[in-house]
Amino acid sequence: MSERQPYPSDLSDERWELIRPVIASWKGQHPSVSGHEGRYDMREIVNAILYQARTGCQWRYLPHDLPPYTAVYYYFATWRDDGIDQTIHDLLRWQVREQAGRAEDPSAVALDTQTVHSSLNAPADTTGLDPGKKSRGRKRGIASDVLGLVIAVVVAAAGVHDNAIGIALLDKVAAANPSVRTAWTDAGFKNAVAAHGAGLGIEVEVVQRDPHTCGFAPLPKRWVAEQVFGTLMLHRRLARAYEARPASSESMIYWSMTDNMTRRLTGTATSTWRDPGQRST
Known about the structure:
Organism: Planobispora takensis
CATH architecture of the domain at 105-245: 2-Layer Sandwich
CATH topology of the domain at 105-245: Nucleotidyltransferase, domain 5
Number of helices: 8
InterPro entries: IS402-like_dom (IPR025161), Transposase_11 (IPR002559)
Helix content: 40-55%
Protein name: DDE transposase
Order of helices and strands: HHHHEEEEHEHEHH
Structural class: alpha/beta
GO molecular function, one term: transposase activity
């Protein structure tokens, strides 16, 4: 990397080594037309993506000591379209599960959705009104395992019913993780999701709220999906649906989880404003 003052979101050497082999393999399969290695350090490109995910800045507002935003967005979009973002994410997820003494693939997932406001640049045909929450924007659906790791992501207009998102999530889960046999949902997912899950060999269990409970109480088993959304909100780019394309929103979730998992695997943490002198190692 070029000499510059580090940002708290920068990859440490240990975190970069978890990502580098996939990026290097992709780079080897996509040589430059002119035959050179490229003008920008791939580690710095990833640092710029993580900087944006964490701070929520616009592409054009990336700091000048990082690669130009045009180059960063080029790689972000190319890796999104090639599936490299998900490949990195899934490999790290398997390592986190192995570190926790779990099998690579889960046997159960929790499904949940989250509605977020969209920015003005989001095309109207990719946004909508969530009638239940009276909120206009996009709806994110995730399937997460019991460790709080993302198994599948679906982003759609907020007007799309939870049933449609739940069915799409189950399709993704079944295709990539055939070991899953149980899915926990809340009452927002109706019978259509359970019927679809049965056809895939996945038993969908609706976790009901105890009617005698007053105030907020985490729902058994599926509370972990809500925890994942809360963790993702630490990445300010996800505080609103800023991306023009739903696929880019999904990619930003993968990169944010990659940020979390590399820290989890290496035991490092992000510096906070409460302790500005501490840096990740």
